[in-house]
Design goal:
Length: about 140
């Protein structure tokens, strides 16, 4: 995840538990990287990022993480860490697609920063396309 143009790029990142996340600062301004685990609102990582600096972290807990720069409050990003074999971010309207999922039985989980909107259910994937409505999970 790069820091450039007073922004994090990309603004959303999906990683596996234990997969390294590299932060870089590609502009001539100093930034920092502040990573907080959303469920506990606790800082997981905080480091100054001078121009051209690079740092790497590993996130071991599944869930959502806010990424901010304390120097520039407009700089925000989000990391979701998962153990799932297939995962994606939903569009702003809630739509999503996950290509190339082999047929079988899966547990589909929805994560949101709001715990009220989380849930899961079993889904059977078969054929070339499976429609999955996760709007009513409870
Ligand atoms: Cu900054």
């Amino acid at each position: 995840m790069d820091q450039l143009g007073l922004a994090f790029m990309p603004t959303q990142l999906l990683v596996r538990v234990g997969q390294p996340v590299v932060f870089t600062n590609s502009e001539s301004l100093a930034h920092n990287v502040h990573v907080a685990f959303i469920d506990t609102d606790s800082t997981i990582f905080l480091a100054d990022m001078d121009p051209n600096e690079r740092t790497q972290i590993v996130l071991d807990a599944e869930g959502g993480y806010d990424v901010t720069c304390d120097v520039h409050p407009g700089m925000r990003a989000f990391i979701y860490v998962t153990t799932a074999p297939h995962a994606t971010f939903a569009d702003p309207d809630g739509g999503f697609s996950i290509p190339d999922v082999p047929p079988g039985s899966y547990i589909a989980s929805v994560w949101s920063a709001s715990m009220d909107l989380r849930g899961q259910r079993t889904v059977q994937v078969s054929g070339p396309s499976t429609v999955l409505d996760l709007s009513i999970l409870q």
